[in-house]
Structure formats: structure tokens, C-alpha cells
Amino acid sequence: MSELVYLDSHCHLFSDEFDKDREAVFDRAREAGVLFLNIMCTSVEEAIEAMAYSEQDPEHIKVSCGVFPTDVNELDEETWNRFERVMRDERCTCIGEIGLDYYWEKEEANRAKQRELFIRQIALANEVNKPICVHSRDAIQDTFDIMKEHRCHGLMHSFSGSEEMGKEFVKLGYYLSLGGPVTFKNARHAREVVTSMDVSYLLSETDSPYMAPEPVRGTRNEPANIPYITARMAECRGVSTEELSKQIIDNWHRFLELK
Question: All domains of the chain, ordered by start, with CATH?
């Protein structure tokens, strides 16, 4: 097992892509030193499985559940109530991933519904005193405006905004999580964010099974790939991987303590 300890703050390990070898994926993560995992769930069924699994190691394995923005048209009150019960469950640590996705949805009516759902889930997070994990695609300004007006403790998942926007999120107390794209040759913005942000607000993730880093780009991503990401982040900052991995774990503990 690796001597270093790593964090994957965003991995969809109970999605269908891992049904055939899920336990082997967990084993490879542990062997690589990726002991801290935040499992993202976008359905109630995924969350129930993940929460049951997390009971074997609640210190290291956390579970997040939320209504994904592009699922807004399928959301009725019965479905919301089922999600809400999970989000209130003490085994659910974070509410997410929630937010805005304008990439697939071009109609303003749909985008307005996404904003309403985002605000509703932020309100629930504040009510139950849990942090949020935020997805934002082609919607960074609206995301920022909502998170500024409706304040909550949270993180920006797979942050892809500019250095300037990253600093504005950090000013509001939000953490920034970086994944595979920071290793890509053309990912200038991601590297600028890693280099320039207050290191106390940086986190690492894979977004498994998506966005595998170099040198395994194009394959199914999994938490065992976190060392590639952390090493690249450390290189950007001019520090050792050991130093940055320890800092990221400290940041994660502080994030979970709502600080």
C-alpha cells in the first residue's frame, strides 16, 4: 500500500459502470492510498446502497446525494420526498451533486427550473447543517450569483472556471475540487487555479468513472488514479506530492467540520 494518503472527494462508485467489479475498485483505491472517498449518488437507489456500504468504514467513506440539475423535468413531489429522506439520513454527509448545467439545456424555462431546484436544495442543506457539492457546467456566473445570495458551506466540484472566478468563490468560503483535467496539456485554467488559490481551499477528485487523468486518459476512471492528479497539482504549486496530499486531507477534515 502507498505510504501517502489521498482524497477522492467525488466518485460515482455505485453507478452502473462499476457493477461488475466494484469491490476490486475499492481494493485498488486502498492499495493506492486513496483512503478518503466521497461517493456521489444521483438516485435514491444508489444512495441506499452506498450508505449501507459506508457503515463498514464511516471515518473514511462518505456519501453524498442530491437531485442532479438535468433531472429537474423528471422531479415530482413524490420523487423529491424520497430524495429528501435520504438527504436527511445521518449517513448522508453532503448534499450533491447539485447545481446548474446549461450545456445540455438551452431553453430558459428549463434553466429557471434548475435554478429553483438548486436554491431548494441549498435551503435543505442549511436546514440539516450539511455541506453541498456543486456541479456547474456552462453556468458559472449564475452558479456564483446563487451561491453568493443563498450562502451555504460547500465545494465546487471539478472546478473549470477562471482564476479570477475561483478567487471569488474562495472569498465566499467555498472549496475548489480539481480532477483529471488538471493533467491535460491544454488545461491552462485548471493549472492557474491550482497555482494561485489559497491551498487551504483545494481538494482532489476523480469524478469516476469520467475524466480519467493522463496517462490513463480515455479509460474508465477510478479513485486509484488520484495520485496522478495530486502529483500534477503538487507540481503546479512547486511542492512535494506528500506535502500537498497531507494538506488536502487536512482541508477535507475542515470541510466536513463546516469550517
Answer: 6-256 (3.20.20.140)
